[in-house]
Specification:
The chain contains eleven helices and twelve strands. With 325 residues, the protein is of the alpha/beta class. The mean pLDDT is 95.
Length: 325
């Protein structure tokens, strides 16, 4: 049992991670400004091991309050997430994703908090040869503001690592699946919704590659890192996903059509996409024994079932997107 601070704990990944950490017996405190509301955390209040601080991580006072008392580990998820959201608010993205991250790292070092899990992204690789999947040692080629802020933060964190500060960086594949703070602007979720409710998919650049990982598997990867000896994770970078879950966009469409036949597919040719990458996930399996349990077809079935059963009043609402417009 650890005392864990989760920044951005009300978000798409954060709310699932909080539930998983509580399930494993940890005490969890969340700091979040609740940009998309706090209903995703209501279930956590059913345990005495949950605490909450409302505030913006750009505010040092908020971070100081969140780190008060005994904190054994920090899981840093708070961010303006995704290329469209960062492009629409670039200055805020730099402040939240980069500058606030540096401030949090410095404060953790001042407080003597050694365990620090930074949640990053495989989009840092930008573009790679599909025949040679990117590993944790591959060159980083950020081609968006979102990736730039993540790469800059990674570098600062790794340079700060020493015997007293032992960070671990997790580069996530593209996430999918159900969450208490649901998103339908993620490709698997979006394709499933559009195929089921509109019977039509519009596909841009069907040849480009991406890896995918279920949100529950992300939560379990974070929990696995927290449970691992520091000798295995300190100063390390791990890609989070599964080699079998690298797909071209057209392959993803075919997986959706298997479960939602009769869907019309409109392909829009796109000659160049700066983000086309296959990724290797051998390292996290070899060192930490972590292997995702969910595959993309499982996630499609899960989201389809929730939509068919009317869980979402309006799955096209902007509340299920990370962009505010």
């Amino acid at each position: 049992s650890m005392n864990v601070l989760v920044t951005g704990g009300a978000g798409y990944i954060g709310s699932v991670t909080v539930a998983e950490l509580l399930r494993r017996g940890h005490r969890v405190r969340v700091v979040d400004r609740l940009l998309f509301g706090g209903e995703s955390l209501l279930g956590a209040y059913n345990t005495p091991y949950f605490d909450f601080v409302r505030g913006d991580i750009r505010d040092r006072g908020t971070l100081s309050d969140a780190l008060d008392g005994e904190v054994d580990a920090v899981v840093h998820l708070a961010a303006i997430v995704g290329d469209p959201a960062c492009a629409s608010q670039p200055e805020e993205a730099r402040q939240v994703n980069y500058e606030a991250t540096l401030g949090l790292v410095d404060l953790c070092r001042e407080r003597g908090i050694s365990r620090f899990v930074f949640v990053s992204t495989c989009s840092n690789y930008g573009i790679s040869d599909p025949s040679q999947p990117a590993t944790e040692e591959s060159p980083l080629n950020p081609v968006s503001l979102y990736a730039e802020t993540k790469v800059g933060s990674e570098r600062y964190i790794l340079q700060a690592a020493d015997d007293e500060f032992q960070p671990c960086i997790l580069r996530l594949a593209t996430v999918f699946g159900l969450s208490p703070r649901m998103r339908f602007d993620l490709l698997v979720n979006e394709f499933t919704r559009d195929a089921l409710l509109h019977r039509k998919l519009v596909v841009y650049g069907e040849q480009f590659w991406r890896p995918y990982v279920h949100v529950q598997d992300v939560a379990e990867a974070i929990a696995t890192v927290l449970a691992s000896p520091t000798s295995l994770i300190a100063g390390q970078v791990f890609n989070v996903g599964s080699d079998s879950e690298n797909y071209q966009k057209r392959q993803l469409v075919d997986l959706v059509l298997q479960q939602i036949p009769g869907t019309q597919v409109e392909t829009v040719p796109k000659g160049d996409d700066p983000r086309s990458y296959r990724v290797s996930f051998v390292k996290i399996a070899r060192i930490l024994g972590f292997r995702p349990r969910w595959r993309v077809p499982d996630g499609i079935a899960q989201v389809k079932r929730a939509l068919e059963q009317g869980v979402f009043d309006d799955p096209f609402s902007t509340r299920y997107r990370n962009t505010r417009a």
